Amino acid sequence: MLPTLRQLQYLKLLAEQGSFGRAAEAARVTQPTLSAGIRELERILGAPVVDRARSGVILTPVGEEALRRATTILNEAEELVEAAKNAGQPLTGRFRLGVIPTIAPFVLPRALPALRERFPKLRLFLREDLTQRLIAALKAGQLDAALIALPYDMTGLQWAHVSEDELVAAVPLGHPIAKLKSAPPEDLEREGLILLEDGHCLREHALAACGLKPPKATGGEEIFAATSLPTLVQMVGSGLGVTFLPKMAVSAGLTDAAGVAVRPIATAHPSREIVVAWRAGSNRGAEGRLLADVLKTL
Hints:
Radius of gyration: 24 Å
Distance between the termini: 52 Å
Strand content: 15-25%
Number of strands: 11
Order of helices and strands: HHHEEHEHEHEEHEHEHEHEEH
């Protein structure tokens, strides 16, 4: 005998809510009904999935593994229902899209109105996060697609090209590099390079494109890092150093009135590839390609 979707849903709600009472309320069933479902699940698996404590419920190791697999199975079931409802009607109904922070503010303001106009029945749910977490969510079935930048390890994923986004140098106004037509990477490295914090793929893209290594602290001096592109631009404008920026951010006005000068980087092909990615084998792949085609036109 196999667990039912309802039993797996009970387990997921129990883990989320932390008590049988709240889980039953979220499932819109009585507590005895939910408790019976969990007991039947334990019988089928041959091991307890929860420890019942005064402070609430705690998943056992078997319960943790069951929850991990249940999450994937439930997401796949939801995908199946959505696909059946929207057969022949692409980008209709719920679509969960992840976007990285170095793309979202510069693409979504143009993309969202265009998507609403072309696909009026689309219910778009957006999640902004770092690349590694979006990819993990894609593989777990928690997202349908993600707008990210390559290069990146795309094992288990498929993707469609959207555009090439040039990387440029940003330096304070009046800086010697601002007088040049293009910025040599080695000069940027010597001039106090400021980057986004670890975890932002733009950091790795820029360093790799220029053949540079991450800056290291010397002589007890602290290495500056920014949590976002607006903060990064303000740090450069305040004379704290120089940096790399995506061209799409500059075109969107990020550096306007910020006291910085923008120059091309004097190296071959300093850019990142913007793509729409989805889980390999997902039935939302055709919609991912369609989304990429729409974004190409913006």
